[in-house]
Amino acid sequence: MMIESHLNNTLMRLLLIIASLLVLPHIGTLNPLFIVISLALIAWCGFVHFFNRFSPSAWLLLPLSLLLAFLVLKLHGMSLGREASSSFLLVLLGLKLLECRRQRDVLAVIFVSFFVLITPFLFEQTIALALYGLCLFFLLLCALIINASGSASIRPVDVTRFATQIGLLAFPLMLIGFLLFPRMIGPLWAMPKDASNAVSGISDSINPGQISHLALSNETAFRARFNGASPAFNELYWRGPVFWQTDGQQWTVSLNSTRREAANDPSPVNTLYRYSLVLEAHHQRWLYSLDTPITAPNQVRLTQDNQLLLKDKLRRTRSFDLLSNTQTAPEILNYKDRLRALALPKNTDQRVYQLAARWQADADSDIAVINTGLAYFNQEDFYYTLTPPRLGVDPVADFLFSTKRGFCGHYATSFAVVLRAANIPTRLVAGYQGGVYNAVGQFWEVRQADAHVWVEAWLAGRGWVRFDPTAAIAPNRIEHSIDFSNQRLGGEVRFLIEPGDGFSNWAQQLTSLMQAVDYYWESGVLAYGPEVQHDFLSSFGIDGWEQMVLWLALLSGGLILIVTLFLYRLSVRKEDPSQAAYLAFCKKLGRRFTYKKPAETSLHYFARIAAIKPDLEPDLQQIRQQYLLSRYAKNDARKLLALIRAFRF
Q1: Residue 531 in contact with residue 298, Cβ under 8 Å?
Q2: Lowest-confidence pick of 349-358, 418-427, 471-480
Q3: Cβ-based burial of 642 (10 A; exposed 0-12, middle 13-18, buried ≥19)
Q4: pLDDT digit string, tens, across residues 323-349
Q5: Is the pLDDT confidence value at 214 over 60?
Q6: How many CB atoms lie within 10 A of CB 87?
Q7: 160-164, 265-269, 308-312: lowest mean pLDDT where?
């Protein structure tokens, strides 16, 4: 590859650096084979450029391009999903670099790089990635400026200043587009074969019999910010799906519950909490809320069993404004729900019924039976662990009478089964418990490993009441969050009971600051979907996509016009009065004798006029001397103007 002279070394080095940096965010998300191929093509281009050897011909690049394109499709099942598209663009970038010979080839490389720059955001949209992409965008602007200049001597400081000016001028236009461009209902990155890959969290069934350990995940499930004081930590039960049916091995969720009527709304007002919740995509329909939700946001249904259900599965980060009450008024249990809340499989182990009978022996009420059951878990040889032994075909009986080791799912499911055997209506509720308070951002961060399951039992005169058997075994689980920095899989569960000191405290403060920045990034940028956009723009009287497009066109066009006029004013220099007077005098001489040539100096022009009319030479020389003094010595221009006015042909 013979590099032409106008493709300077600075530009090619910059392109190679940019191409390498564009590949790095894809490590861990794309097939390692295509990462290696892309880096190898970039290295090949660098070798050709610096050593001018092994330059590929068009006869080699064409079949190589076809082969790599086929390889991308073959390894991705002939599907152009986000992985295949990103891999193809990376390979294309390397190939375009190899055939870079002219300025237009460089322009093609830069344009392909802009497309590659977008691809990491198909996988994640963190603020760190956004800042990284912004830096690469700035470098691409610099490359574009260097290539457009066509000069090898352009100074880096001039390129940097010009790129900064372009970025600052484009920022208002970007902000207008962000606020007014109509949002899509679904995420742009919902490509084929995308799926949720959560390590831990809430699924649509509870089946502890098939779980040998609960993987700890520090990934964020959602963040909540209260409008005022927040509840106590042991009241932070974040309600999700409700489970009624069990076959003895697993409990399944029902999303067909009827809508809750307004008459069943809780009456106490001293425990009302208003808060905003930024929920990460979890690919399920339920919306988590502080137990118990009072109202449902737009396009969300509040069911009879206090579930908040979305119309579709949540595939993007969304923000919700919610209202909850930690105390509820009594409810009436209808016959159908009573049957559902007492149903047990026919093959339930008889020892479960015998245990229920023992709990009922000295109890005179349902609440007494429940308290006896909680005391049973507390006093018997039960142990809270995140790595319980595997259970058999009857997980409840195996756990109660054999292993006695488990986490919240084990205790909640077994407790609910025994209460049903004691003729007490029960159901399971899954969600999250607790969270970590961020003092910097003043919000609660709830992580996937805060996932929790508890029991609700119906009591006459009180309605559905929450009971958490995990609190009887491990009260620290309900009072504190899990300490991930000291947690080891298979080891004893550790909790954040006391704040760290020294370096640990500084590290925790820094982490809180970073999480606070991430919270505002998610709530202000990522959660700005069609619902938030509609609410925000409606406050300004902009409703519907037609008005959005109209205002987008008006504001964008007006901004572009203002910027254009501003740049034009900057580019037009204010003319020196002495220069203006001199040029006007030359025009008069031209109409009478001969015109001044474009690059002709005053000395040569006045000499040509004096050759035509010699008697004008003294006056012309006097005017020329005064012009030079006014123009370059910054003398008063009024003397020059007086001489020109006194000049007679």
Answers
A1: yes
A2: 471-480
A3: exposed
A4: 999 887 778 889 999 999 999 999 999
A5: no
A6: 26
A7: 265-269
- Separation of alpha carbons 113 and 617, rounded Å: 64
Identify which of 493, 500, 458 has the alpha carbon closest to the alpha carbon of residue 476: 493
Tokens 């600051």 belong to residue: 513
What is the C-alpha to C-alpha distance for residues 527 and 318, in angstroms, rounded to an integer? 5
What are the C-alpha distances in Å from 138 to residues 113, 162, 165? 12, 11, 11
120 — pLDDT class (breaks 50, 70, 90):
very high
Q: What is the rounded distance in angstroms from the CA atom of residue 253 to the CA atom of residue 241?
A: 6
Amino acid at 236: L
What are the backbone dihedrals phi and psi of residue 76, each rounded to the nearest 5 degrees, phi first? Answer: -115, 25
The residues, any chain, with a CB within 8 Å of residue 11's CB and separated by 6 or more, are 106, 143, 146, 147
The residue whose two tokens read 């609440």 is: 367
Among 45, 19, 44, which Cα is nearest to 140's?
A: 19
The vertex-235 CA angle with 234 and 238, nearest 5°, equals 110
Phi first, then psi: give them for residue 293, nearest 5 degrees: -70, 145
Q: Are 224 and 276 in contact (CB under 8 A)?
A: yes
Residues 6+ apart with CB under 8 A from 568: none
Q: How far apart are CA 544 and CA 547, in angstroms?
A: 6
Structure tokens at 206: 């509870």
Alpha helix (H) residue ranges in 474-616: 475-479, 503-521, 530-538, 545-571, 577-592, 602-612
Distance CA 584, CA 591 (A): 11
Name the strand (E) or helix (H) holding 447: strand 443-447
The answer to pTM > 0.85 is no
